[in-house]
Design a protein that fits this description.
544 residues; alpha/beta; nine-stranded mixed beta sheet; 15 helices; 26% helix; binds iron/sulfur cluster
Length: 544
Amino acid sequence: MVKLPSHYYHQRCYWAHMVTLRCSARCPFCILNGRGRRIAQKEMSGKEILEWWNGVEHQPGQKLSIIGGEPTMHPDIVEIINGLKNYHITLTTNCKSPFYNDPDFNKKFKVHPTSTLRINTTFHPHHLTADEYIAVIAKWRKSSYFVDQTSFVYTPETMKQYGDEIRKVSANIAMTEGSFLGFYDNEYGFSAPFEPENLMPNEGYHDIKRVGERCGLTDLNAYRHICGQATGQEVQCWHPRRSLIIGPNGNYHHCHYKMYYDIGPVCNVKDFKPTPNKDITCRHYGLCNWCDVPRVGCVKNKTAKPQVLNKLYDKKERGLPEIDYLFTDIQKFGIKYSLECNKLKWFEYAYSLLYSGHRIRGKTLDVGSARSVFPYYLSHRGYNVTTIDVSDGPYRDEVGGKFGVTSIVGDLREFDPELEGQFDLITNLSVIEHIDEDTRAIQNLARYLRPGGVMVISTDFYTRYIEYPDANRIIVSDRPAGSHTDSRVYTPETFERRILRPLEQMGVKRVGNTDFNNIDITKREERSVRGLYTFGIAIVRKQT
Ligand code: SF4
Ligand code: SF4
């Protein structure tokens, strides 16, 4: 038996297992879509899930939520529900999946005598008709299980498109209205830029008084501070001590946000370690998932402070658990598919994926891709990726074909109108130093961003500016003549003048704080590239 530290047994500590992130539906307002669509993860088997939960010491009647995605998509869902002992189980389901094809689906669950089952359903009119939903609820109610909640999500579009269906269900079943929690605007709909003013519900919501009761959103300014920002801040967050949230692959996460995107798990249940008491620092505050508000409280976190996101390579950060977890995964992916993974790149990859505040799994342009692992890893993680480079076209076509990555042969100095306003994320890593007209190239790329889109730029820095094409030949002393590439190196001042200010004049502005003196570049031991020179990063975002 695993005995947990006492805070896990507090009555408000939330125990949940997202047994699968797969779903039978494709609701445009999906809560997982707020910052990216879901991707399938390896899933624990029913046997493993039961070994874990039945092996955790708990009081009879301990609440446990079995959720997804759509949990009935898990092949062992019946074994799981029937095998849990001494739990008050809540199963949340959308009522339409292959599980429901069996006319006797409602007879499949025979929960253990020590457990109880509550069934929680939401009517998703994009996914099933009112008649189908009514029939499923009627069957569930014929079984002995308690169908506690039937609801629908009130979005700006649902009532217009599906008002008749919702009224039909309401005439048959007492159905409550769930508030839409997520980003929305009139131009982009559910793909609206992440801006506090696009976060719903807001003061204009038709039934704002009841939102507080239903979702715990008692202070909308605080809600926007917690969930509605474009960039994360660093805070001390107590959420990890108020939840035991397990993802499909058995990873134990601090909160829903980190679980949905598999960011820095505390551990896997196969080797369970409770969350540390002291280290409760989080760098993602402002991007939190709305489901996390009840645990942190609808109040602004007073410890919030902006992060330095524009800076030079800092080797000390390599040990941060979430960076280590991400980069280990990228390296494993590179080894598995024989793709190039430079061990210094952890810095750029971590800042691109963890801290830039981009639309996770959005439409992405990877620039100067050459043979890098990164665009293919992004695609593997659910991003819609295009690569662009002047060279390596046949290679990128071949590898891109395997991973669903589109490749373009293109010169960044030439503006391509077909790409204008297309991308949520541009990863422009170690490229601009190799382009003679760097300012022009970066301005072209900025025009490829959509409003709210993010570009991550990394490039080489040195103690003095050396103009293209000579830097590599002058600085790199440990390689034979003729092996050098054409490049320049920047100083903080020249990087500002040639790259950041021209972007800012176009309304593409830095996010987070800036400190290009965060390390002492005059010391060889601080320079990342064999003590010769280093590189730095900037994150810019197109204003909305
Ligand atoms: S049923 Fe739920 S999890 Fe599935 S797509 Fe719809 S909102 Fe998302
Ligand atoms: S993402 Fe938000 S809820 Fe999750 S640990 Fe960080 S601050 Fe807390």
